[in-house]
Amino acid sequence: MEALIANYGDDDSSSSETDISPPSTPNTRHKLTFEESESKSEPEPVRLPPPPLSLLNNSSNSLDYMEIGQGSRVRNFPHIEGNYALHVFIPVSIPPTSMKNLALFLKRIAKVVPDLHVVDVDIPLSILCKDDQKLEQVALGREFHISLGRTVPIRVHQIDSILAMLRHKLSSPKQYWIDFDKWDVFVNDEQTRSFLAMEVVAGGLAEVAKQIQSVNEIYRFHNLPEFYEDPRPHISLIWASGNVSDLLKKRVMENLSAAGTMSQNRRIFTCKFKGIKCRIGNKQYKICNV
């Protein structure tokens, strides 16, 4: 696997209405992504991805509430009154037909790389691996995100303008397929987290790149930092503390062939592009769908 380590800013999916992330100087580092309203004027509540309580409480391997919280990300930016964190993204769902192979692969990785956690829900992967149903539903059955722009702070008076321009620029997207073809490891700017991700390198890449460019134009108009020069669209599944990219890449290489139907040169899964959303503070908005 010709994996390249890409650095990107930390993603905090639990941001409140006053959460911000500071603008960063454009570079070639890559960002991890976060996580609709019935009308264009009203936002839908953010749908957080916690596992079903029935799954977590009905077996001997049930997850303790305090244990779930152990992996929570540490915020690396201050709360500033009147600022809102903006994130524009393509929602992605892994098809059920791909979950079993992915779950087997994650179980293999969990055995050889210690202290892995599931992105967003921050549950230790080793606990989920004790129950196949939990592993598929919690680690793989939630909504993932392909970022179309940096997560940046905006002021309240910018919200309506940004939403209007996003909906105008991205109003008529065409249906296309997104292929996740490659496993890779990404490291955040602070070198405090390593992420195992699935990257888009062929099918759908051109379309995603065009959408990133449209978002860049809107960011530029509002004096916001644009996306990375060489964006690498991806979704991340699991994380480990610190920069353990060498170890994680080595173990992925060793286990790709053992995973049966998956290999570094074979498509991992494919999904349809269904639209674009954005999150502003703790509210989520529908930008467009197809």
Automatic annotation (TrEMBL):
GO cellular component, one term: nucleus
EC number: 3.1.4.-
Biological process (GO), any one: U6 snRNA 3'-end processing
Active site location: 145, 234
A single MF term (Gene Ontology): lyase activity
Pfam family, one: HVSL
Keyword annotations of the record: Hydrolase, Lyase, Nuclease, Nucleus
Function: Phosphodiesterase responsible for the U6 snRNA 3' end processing. Acts as an exoribonuclease (RNase) responsible for trimming the poly(U) tract of the last nucleotides in the pre-U6 snRNA molecule, leading to the formation of mature U6 snRNA.
HAMAP family per UniProt: USB1
Family assignment from sequence similarity: Belongs to the 2H phosphoesterase superfamily. USB1 family.
Protein name in the entry: U6 snRNA phosphodiesterase
Annotated organism of origin: Papaver nudicaule (Iceland poppy)
